[in-house]
Amino acid sequence: MRHYQGLSADARRRLFQQEPEEIDVDADAATLSTALGATLYMPATRPHLADDLVRRAVQDDVVSAVVCLEDAVPDELVEQAQENAIAQLRDLGARGGGPLVFVRVRRPEQIGEIVRGLGEHRGVLRGFVLPKFTARTGAAFLDALDDTAQTEGTRLWGMPLIESPEMIHRETRDEALLGVQRLLDKHRSSVLAVRTGATDLCGAYGIRRGRDLTIYDVRLVADVLMAVVNVLGRTDGSGFTVTGPVWEYFTGEERLFKPRLREAPFQEHDAVALRAELITRALDGLIREVVLDKANGLTGKTVIHPSHVPVVHALSVVTHEEHADAQDILRGTSSGVAASSYGNKMNEARPHRAWAERIMVRARAFGVAREEIGLVDLLTEAVSR
Q1: Nearest-angstrom CA–CA distance, 28 and 10
Q2: Which of 56-60, 257-261, 322-326 has the lowest mean pLDDT?
Q3: Per the domain annotation, does 344 fall within a domain?
């Protein structure tokens, strides 16, 4: 798997000082989970699911996708949807192409049913998203995952989804998260990343954020995200990659607040029309939320529309300045403080080391931009494709 394969060689040379690398699908969890980028959800009821997955991989740089059998499918259609997912994934496996595919199941038993149904094409499936994950419900999912992988002789990753009421209710959150931490530690070799479900968390209180707001403006949910990172996203060897929640808007409507995209960078790049398009398509809110995801320790994002994918990936490219700082920090011979190569900040070798290591993993997956290339350049290339 490799990001930005759809770009011409000239475009890659123009944008990247270090181009995105080919990431082995059997890479370690930290590398592979970072490379997932924007993970596109699709309902399992789609009649042309295999075609859609191939097309999105080519047109939109979709590298990872989740075929959903849970909230995206009405209760009465679950069995039909599962049969369709199996048939479509067998088709995808026969073609030998497409993104990394995961299935979001409802019941632990579906894990074995789906893998057995895929038969000789089981290798097309990378793993499962485990819904409403708690210490109480999650053990059965992880046991089914490990048992199926061993029985069927295939590698399967699990991505537990933190979205249950126990996680948002203040009196149960700490105990619930610590229980999940203990459970995931027992199954560490099977866990690729921890996903976060903002929609269900909002639903527990009957709220929904507007397109003028990010999830970090919804304090009830923001508190859950920060608690998840605090407990499950540590860099001391006990944590996992924690992914950003879904952005659910993909078209414009009347707005109450001014857009938060500054005009100056777009004017400097003669890209005023791009700014207008981003605002019209509600992508300015997505941009801000991804920036806040990164600032708060989340990596990658769940998305529900193809237009979101190139935006998330543009924001995942490592800037020249970030890369220079990371290099300075990692090759430091002491634990002291030194001015950055850019001369605009202090780099501290010890507290910044985990950040620098993460930057280098992201640089492998998404590349390093040239010094003169900014976000507007990357967005221009992404949105114009």
Answers
A1: 31
A2: 257-261
A3: no
Cβ atoms of 17 and 379 closer than 8 Å: no
Pairing of β 125-130 and β 16-18: unpaired
Q: Is 200 annotated as a binding residue?
A: yes
Q: What is the pLDDT of residues 226-238, one digit of tens each?
A: 999 999 999 999 9
- pLDDT tens per residue across span 180-226: 999 999 999 999 999 999 999 999 999 998 888 999 999 999 999 99
Say what the pLDDT of residue 10 is: 93
Domain that holds residue 165: 24-316
Residue 349 near residue 335 (C-beta atoms within 8 A): yes
Residue 330 forms part of a structural domain: no
Nearest to residue 200, comparing CAs of 158, 234, 165? 165
Count up the domains in the chain and report the number: 1
Q: 135-152 vs 170-186: helix axis angle to the nearest 10?
A: 20
Q: Does residue 339 fall inside a structural domain?
A: no
pLDDT at 333 > cutoff 60: no
